[in-house]
Design brief:
two-stranded antiparallel ribbon; 11% strand; alpha+beta; 4 helices; globular; 98 residues
């Protein structure tokens, strides 16, 4: 979790993408996608994503190629906790709903 928090705090490409200052397909998008893929590999997770303040996925990396960019996750517990300033790790076995 610490690596993910630092990614958002320190990586300007992640910040630009989440704030809507970088366009899909831009160099920033490619850099963030590559970084999320690396995080997934390092931490043995299926998915990694960047979500903006409105709860819309701005970048998404999945082990099976599922596309998530543009999807609304504002109703999810991890998003609600993050918007309250609370760190969380959600471990679930779920099916993709999009």
């Amino acid at each position: 979790m610490g690596a993910t928090i630092l990614l958002g705090a320190e990586n300007r490409s992640v910040q630009a993408l989440a704030a809507g200052r970088a366009k899909p397909g831009s160099t920033s998008q490619a850099e963030v996608d590559a970084t999320l893929g690396l995080l997934r590999t390092l931490y043995f997770t299926d998915d990694a994503l960047v979500v903006n303040r409105q709860g819309i996925i701005a970048a998404y990396s999945s082990h099976n190629g599922t596309r998530g960019v543009g999807k609304d996750v504002s109703y999810r517990p991890y998003f609600r906790l993050a918007m309250q300033g609370t760190n969380s790790v959600i471990t679930t076995s779920a099916t993709t709903t999009w």
